[in-house]
Amino acid sequence: MPVIDAHTHVFPPDVIARRETIAKIDARFALLYANPRARMVDATGINEYLETQGIEQAVVTSFPFTDASLVRACNDYVLELARTDTRVIPFVTVDMEDETSARDEAERCVRFGARGIGEIAFYDTGYGKREREKLLVVGAYAAQQGIPVMIHVNEQVGHAYQGKTIMDLQEILSFIEAHPDLTVILSHLGGGLCFYEFMPEVRKIFSRVYYDLAAVPLLYSSEVYDFVARYIPDRTLFGSDFPLLSYRKYAEDLGSLDDEARDKLLFRNARRMLGNG
């Protein structure tokens, strides 16, 4: 059975080697990766994952550094990886503190084959009006190009963990509403925003919104798969958040779904979203 992993991360070897130094100058990166036990992989690690777990294709991105030079270096690494391995679907990050720079980097990367923008994340500041406004230019550009934007959204209740931050869900909704032609991927089941789709006005605004399952086994009980299979089967993507988790962590629970729902989550929805069928 084909599997498309819609959410994985990779880093150049020199960034992994300089983890400790980078963590001292990039607070956002430090939140997730200052701990040496936090897994980071380079191209070799992604290749091994795809090979050993039978992944047909994977959306591969790096990290939304606050340092623009690191953003560019990691984007170049992801784009080169995609050039040499057709299984890699390259998503790129941008410097969200400078809207002009962000658009310029997005344009540069699209010229070299980027298929999406993200994972955009504001681990250090949270997400509010300021962050929404920072995203407007990139959102408009992505809509114009017909490529998706992936946004990190974490839940606002439950246990604490590194990188969990305060997010104004209304501001996320407002961003989506302002870009009706933009395809948006809300990671981690949108921090629970998917449950608000029982509100008709939200469901209407979210007609082009997809949710991925990244890190879901660490957040929700397995009953959540029955929920997505019943209520949002056409707009949910399998995503592992590799190397945090891998497909094996999801396989048993996804295997319990009926064939149609499982196939949609594992590959059909991703192919449609990416224009691959």
Overview of the structural elements:
The longest helix has 17 residues, at 68-84. 42% of the residues are buried. With 277 residues, this protein is α/β, with parallel strands linked by helices. The chain has an eight-stranded parallel β-sheet. It has helices at 13-17, 19-25, 27-33, 43-52, 68-84, 99-111, 129-145, 169-178, 200-205, 223-231, 248-255, 259-273; strands spanning 4-9, 57-61, 88-92, 116-120, 149-151, 184-186, 209-212, 236-237.
CATH superfamily: Metal-dependent hydrolases
Rg result = 17 Å
Strand content: 5-15%
Total DSSP helices: 12
Largest sheet, spatial ordering of strands: 1-2-3-4-5-6-7-8
| General shape | globular
Number of strands: 8
Can you tell me the residue ranges where pLDDT is under 50 for at least 5 consecutive residues? Answer: none
- Helix % is 40-55%
Query: Helices and strands: which structural class?
Result: alpha/beta
Q: In total, how many domains does the architecture comprise?
A: 1
CATH class designation: Alpha Beta
Major sheet characteristics: 8 strands, parallel
Name a few traits of the molecule.
single chain; 277 residues; alpha/beta; TIM Barrel; 8-stranded parallel sheet; 8 strands; 12% strand
